[in-house]
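Researcher: Quick sanity check before group meeting.
Model: Go ahead. Protein one:
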Amino acid sequence: MLIFNPASGGGRSGRNEVVARAAEALAGVGHRVEIVQTETAGSAEALARKAAEAGADAVFACGGDGTVHEVMQGLVAEGGKLAAALGIVPMGSANAVARHLGLSLDPVEAALEQVRGVSAVVSVGKVEFAGESRYFAAMAGAGPDGTLVYELGTAHKAGWGRFAYYLHAARLFATRRFRPFAVEYAEFSTERRVATVAVCAMAVRVASLGGLFGRLTGKRTAYREQWMRLALVRPPGWISLPLWFVCGWLGLETINPLAQIALVSEFFCAPMRGNAPHVEADGEWLGRLPMRVSTVPDALRILLPRRKS
């Protein structure tokens, strides 16, 4: 099954045709293919779950990281039997997950190299907040990234793509004063508990977030592992956030006293005073702190090109 949102990216012209070409290519190598459009926000999750229950071998998220995020919600199995594999037809502006998996950014080629490749069972990230939970593939965080996702309207994303993020992020860094919040994390190697205060906490499970954000969180890969790279930026944010960005791009992150990267198995964030900071996962706004972030081992089957097996 190929799932896509016809309105994603502001209904970019040619989206239907791209999905149709990917489906035709898959059918051409012997697969029975069904194309399904989402109808409401969040319907991709139900469609993916229904396809898996009906016996689909693979469910492809056709779109960007937000579409991957929605589809994977219906395919993750915590302690249960894994069914359909997650595939990706990259059609977004960032495509961080697709890039991390080494997929071609040509939608048709990406679909073909996955069905010609292998499947692998991987761990996923999990965010628990306000009595709910969401899984994530690329990243989850609280602070500036949550605010950025919350404030950046879909219309701006559609018209400007990644450039909208860059412009709005620059404005936030220059004009906003972010409130500190409490963080407690467990080091992956020792399970030692560490308590600290931060204005930004970002858990990353891909090698790079891409673009101007690509050098902020280190390069170690995590999609097969049970740890996360946790980037913490300490107050005061008006100094530490620009310094974090500059040091990252200059390759001087190890000398920045106001930022650190730790390999963690889980962490917890709670507000300290005033309005609670915003929370996001894979570029989707979830709500506000508090939140708990952990990893779920062997929870998702994905398709990989053979060179990444």
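Researcher: Fine. The other one?
Model: Protein two, sequence then structure:
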Amino acid sequence: MRARDLPTLFTRKASTMIAIVSLTAGTAGQGQTPPSERGRGAGSAYSAKTPWGHPDLQGIWDFRTVTPMERPVELGDKAVLSAQEAEEFERRAVASRNADQKRGNQVTARRQVNGTTETEDLSLAYNDFWWDRGTKVVGTRRTSLIVDPPNGWFPALTPAGEKRLSAEDAVRERPSIGPEDRPVGERCILGFNSGPPMTPNAYNMNVQLLQTADSIVILNEMVHNARIVPLDGRPHGGIRQWVGDSRGRWEGSTLVVDTTNFYQGTSLRGSSPSMRLTERFTRVGADVLLYEFTVNDPTTWTKPWTAQLPMRKTELPMYEYACHEGNYGMTGILSGARALEKSGRESPTSK
């Protein structure tokens, strides 16, 4: 998010504030049984159809939530929160993320302890008004988006995965040699929540599905990326792409999208070009779309893993997420690195 985004975000924020009661209250009050336990058969799915007979998944879907990808350690083996526990979890999550409060606490700490170094925290780049991470747990009240492994955690990294992530961390910790050293989201190539797969993050967590008889379009608000997914049975192509090469099919009421041939790692930290992604979209109610994805990347994780994210239908419009225009941050980062090199204080190529 940069200065040019503010009019767009202000418009969305104002609209969101008007509709916040209906959007968030509905999420909190959704059914008690996790979708995985309800199943995906015709009896559990919403019955709306397109004119050509396919399940109707069309609309704009909101996937903001405070439910984390991994289960918090302190919750142990608890897979689902009670209503009271969910309310307390939401309260604590919202309070801990409040950028205004965090900024005030750090200012106080600096005043109390002379010379205290402020820990780098991106959330302090903007006040709390501009963040839109959500305020509610997912309607199933699961303690993590990951449902497999059952402990709600990522599987162990492979040795190759550990080595690759360590190398990426080393690059981030030194001045950047070129734009390739910066994350794909910062370079405006992929949104940091759009993936694929789609995962909740800081803001602009909306996706629109559009259907025809032989294809479906998955349009993410962030970086306005559109995946056109053929449904006609054609094989995967051989060209690697940033969002991979997607092919879709129907399994009963569920749309299954298989994606391969990634050009590079996606915005999902740790993924590699070898990742095979299987996404499932099932409309389980008039206002609920169950999104489930399985990541199979044997060069990164020791086993496949699966996450579930119930999305809520919204009547708010999609907004352009203008990222490239006036991307002064990239110019500043690279100019700063070159200045350090020139001064002799830092040499990125020597590390």
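Researcher: One line on it for the slide.
Model: The chain has one domain: 3-97+133-350.
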